[in-house]
Amino acid sequence: MKSISLIQFLIEERRAGRINAELSLLIEVVARACKRIAVATNKGALGGVLGEAGTGNIQGEAQKKLDVISNEILLEANAWGGQLAACASEEMEDPQPIPDMYPKGNHLLLFDPLDGSSNIDVNISVGTIFSILRCPDGVTEPKAEHFLQPGTTQLGAGYVVYGPATVLVLTFGHGTHEFTLDREVGSFILSRRDIRIPEETGEFAINMSNQRHWEAPMQRYIGELLAGKDGPRGRDFNMRWVASMVADVHRIITRGGVFFYPLDAKIKSKGGKLRLMYEANPMAMIIEQAGGAATTGRERIMGIQPSGLHQRVPVFLGSKKEVEVATHYHVEADAAV
Ligand code: AFP
């Protein structure tokens, strides 16, 4: 089969009228920046990139050196291109405007530059997650409130997983597609077009150590999976938990499955663990475009009107049937109160 590079794919999509030139260029710039992040990440201990940076981020989390390096790579790559009005990042409290010496564009880029960074020092896959919004008309100096758009308004979303292979998964509202980095050529090559996630699955991902803190409907749902074929579900289930959302989601994109980061008593006051704008929303778009579902356990993630740039939400995403069963248990429990 003739290999199709990311650039060829984007040109095809532009000719088909499914993407415009500015968005296409932006995706290429982000993909190129992620190749540089892959090089930095793959150096491991030899690159002096492991360990703590000695700084903290807006989330109050200690930053890894690669968190900072990845953030800088994405900011630098996107400064001069002319497609963006501003960037927002998990690593920065406020949006970063495009420097005045460069032309501005009509897009807003949000990213988690290195998701799963607590796994870096133990050489487990990590990734970059990004979301693309339109900058409101007439806004030349975007502030945080200009980013607060529901996930349904995303023009595009993607992630790159830095694993045994470096893989980009991308959507701009016309299906979800996968590109694998050909390191010898330095190009992302189309490896799966129009991915479909099976509606049924026998595999779930959750951090079981939080079980005693979960809400009752989550206890019920996971309890039924653990009961296996002798329980109400009548089948056995397998469990995985990488603790890198990008790696867990990529497994689901590849073979189906369902991922949960539910509310629990420890994080209830924060609203959840994962961030809406640059983790939950982009992953929700990717999953929905692949035929899956993504909710908070009570509502569709992409329907949420954001209230803050670093807002956190519970995340249930993946194979549609399991997301629907778990969500139904929560809605039913709320209605019974
Ligand atoms: P880090 O980026 O701090 O490693 O957090 C990763 C993450 O945001 C997401 O990628 C994982 O799914 C989730 O946190 C893992 O959370 P636990 O460490 O509580 O299992």
Automatic annotation (TrEMBL):
Gene3D superfamilies per the UniProt record, alphabetical: 3.40.190.80, Fructose-1,6-Bisphosphatase, subunit A, domain 1 (3.30.540.10)
Pathway per the UniProt entry: Carbohydrate biosynthesis
Annotated substrate binding sites: D115, G116, S117, S118, N207, K273
Binding annotation for Mg(2+) 1: E90, D112, L114
Annotated EC: 3.1.3.11
Any single GO BP term: gluconeogenesis
List of residues binding Mg(2+) 2: D112, D115, E279
InterPro entries: FBPase_C_dom, FBPase_class-1, FBPase_N, FBPtase
Reactions catalysed, as given in the entry: beta-D-fructose 1,6-bisphosphate + H2O = beta-D-fructose 6-phosphate + phosphate
Principal localisation: cytoplasm
One Pfam family cited in the UniProt record for this chain: FBPase
Highest taxon in the source lineage: Bacteria
GO CC terms of this entry: cytosol
Cofactor binding note of this UniProt entry: Binds 2 magnesium ions per subunit.
Assigned keywords, A-Z: Carbohydrate metabolism, Cytoplasm, Hydrolase, Magnesium, Metal-binding
Entry's localization field: Cytoplasm
Record family assignment: Belongs to the FBPase class 1 family.
Assembly mode: Homotetramer.
Name of the protein: Fructose-1,6-bisphosphatase class 1
Lineage, top ranks: Bacteria, Pseudomonadati, Pseudomonadota, Gammaproteobacteria, Lysobacterales
